[in-house]
Amino acid sequence: MTEPVASAEAAIRRRVDDAVKAVRVKDIDRIMSLYAPDLVAFDVVPPLQYVGANAYRQRWQETFAAFSGPIDYEVRDLQITAEGDLGFLHSLNHVKGTSVQGQKTEAWLRWTAGLRRIAGVWLFVHLHVSVPVDLASGRAALDLQPV
Amino acid sequence: MTEPVASAEAAIRRRVDDAVKAVRVKDIDRIMSLYAPDLVAFDVVPPLQYVGANAYRQRWQETFAAFSGPIDYEVRDLQITAEGDLGFLHSLNHVKGTSVQGQKTEAWLRWTAGLRRIAGVWLFVHLHVSVPVDLASGRAALDLQPV
User: Fold this and answer.
1) Which of A30, A37, A109, B63 could pair with A22 in a Cys bridge, judged by C-beta atoms 3.0 to 4.6 Å apart?
2) Interface contacts A/B by beta carbons within 8 Å
3) In a 10 Å sphere around its CB, with 0-12 CB exposed, 13-18 middle and 19+ buried, how is residue A18 labelled?
4) How far apart are CA B42 and CA A21, in angstroms?
5) pTM value?
6) Strand partners, A74
């Protein structure tokens, strides 16, 4: 059965909402339920790629452990493209929180995701999250604001 | 007309080959012919996003001007997912060259792209290229190798 495009986009939007809510309250099992087992993730931090959802689970657990309390996470400029059982999206995500050392931290991240509808459920099969870098200085650009 | 999945993937693979060849010989017009006008690109360098193919054209011209001679550009671990008129892909891309100052430079980039078949032609509508960063030091990880 082919789902109408508008319906597929709405379903993907709900998955994004689910992901954002799960990040905010650090619900690792909820996050993992959104991922295909063979997820390939390019994260903000090394290594170059995380192959398999289990590898990326550890990354989330490290992130959650680095923040004291909930994480303020917002998605902006979300654009979803979908057809049939396939979709991709991109957005600018603002992450804000307090480290376990008590330091307030915030940054804008670029977020791209690929999704497939598998057995009727939309799952993330690819993630790419990053910040730009200044190649001359070799430094990450963590203080950029969306225009 | 719905194209078989294998055929869509093959068509996208040819577009990737086209893009790689164009980068190697710095053919800006060939590169631009692969982009949808409303391309949104997240590049290795600031700003957070390039909105519109024309904005990204300037970025390529700056890149080409920074290298003396051709650019050695290779795509590894390419995974393409396609259905109907939609596709996305990710890969690890190795870029190598000599700067106009005579310095040899190389890095592995993570590359994600979203494509649409518009009027029968597959075009890139979204690009995301990045390197990981070490958040503690704020430095870009430019010396990583694929496992």
Assistant:
1) A30
2) 150
3) middle
4) 24
5) 0.96
6) A94
How do A121-130 and A35-42 pair as beta strands? parallel
Residue B132 has its nearest CB partner, among A46, A125, A139, at A46
Does the distance separating the beta carbons of A108 and B48 come in below 8 Å? yes
Bridge partner list, A128: A42, A112
The per-residue pLDDT for range A28-53, each reduced to its tens digit, is 999 999 999 999 999 999 999 999 99
pLDDT one-digit tens code per residue, A60-91? 999 999 999 999 999 999 999 999 999 999 99
**Which ranges constitute the DSSP H helices of chain A?**
5-24, 28-32, 53-66
| ipTM field | 0.95
Which domains are assigned to chain A?
Answer: 5-140 (3.10.450.50)
pLDDT > 70 fraction of chain A, expressed in percent and rounded: 98
Q: Which residue reads 């190798």 in tokens? A: B145
